[in-house]
Amino acid sequence: MQRVCFLLRVRADRIDEYRERHAAVWPEMCAALTASGWHNYSLFLRDDGLLVGYLETEDFEAAQAAMARTEVNARWQAEMAPFFESLDDGTGPDEAMRPLTEVFHLA
């Protein structure tokens, strides 16, 4: 099982709304994530907008590709893109995820 951690930055003026949206993630989005192999997925948001994501999956590239093929993900990413800094190149938040290198894990 791969452990994947990534960072993004939420725009300071959208932090409260971002929290509200994630308090009510669409059930079909959650179902698609699970069906696509995303497990133990968490998002952590610091008050300055730093977002830390963590998930476990058998194959991160395959899990991302599976989500990219779903209609619900396309809708969710389109709605979430304006919340993030540094996405002015047309990429969505899911495409901007760059996994961090794990340097330690206590099993």
Automatic annotation (TrEMBL):
GO terms for molecular function: racemase and epimerase activity, acting on carbohydrates and derivatives. One of its GO terms (biological process) is rhamnose catabolic process. Pfam families: rhaM. Gene3D superfamilies: 3.30.70.100. It comes from the Bacteria. This is L-rhamnose mutarotase. It comes from Streptomyces armeniacus.
